[in-house]
Amino acid sequence: MSGSQADGQGDRSAERPASGRRLPKGLAGTLAVTALLALYVWQIAGRGIAMVRSGEPVLIGIGLGVLVIPLLVIGLIVREYRLAAKVQTMADTLFAEGDLPVDDLPRSPGGRIDRSAADEAFEPRRAAVEAAPEDWRAWYHLAFAYDAAGDRRRARESLRKAAGFYRAP
Fold it and tell me: Per CATH, which fold does 115-165 belong to?
């Protein structure tokens, strides 16, 4: 048994593409949810088309309304994938610059981030955004400060702002 297998790590070469980079941690789950949503879209679109083809004025109206749902779902999925790709590109840029946010806040034995430490770490990030409101790096760091503070909605908004200001080098 090799050293990595003995310590419980096993052979992880199957998780790496030919380039040597590891696959993103949540990629399998993301693809599974996307496949389920694709199945949902297919089924809903089929029902909407069947209603439109019925020839009944009321069913045609309902069918057209139902067909809007798959379009919205597809639009939202594309939007989220584009954001994820841009966030990854921004993370790669910050990593190359040695400025990627580090999760080093103290945690409780249960794994929750200490709230006072998160609040304390948040202030400099907020001040950086106020000082440079069009700096994508400041918004990116603020997003992770919001996330540490447990405010996922504002974290996502901040990532969207960062992505809006980001211009690939």
Answer: 1.25.40
Q: Tens-of-pLDDT digits for all 169 residues of the chain? A: 444 444 444 444 444 444 556 767 778 888 898 899 889 889 999 999 999 999 999 999 999 999 998 888 889 989 998 999 999 999 999 999 999 888 888 888 888 888 888 888 888 999 999 999 999 999 999 999 998 888 899 999 999 999 999 987 6
List the chain domain ranges: 25-84, 115-165
Residues in the chain: 169
pTM listed for this prediction = 0.67
The Cα–Cα gap between 94 and 96 comes to 5
- From CA 37, how far away is CA 35, in angstroms rounded? 5
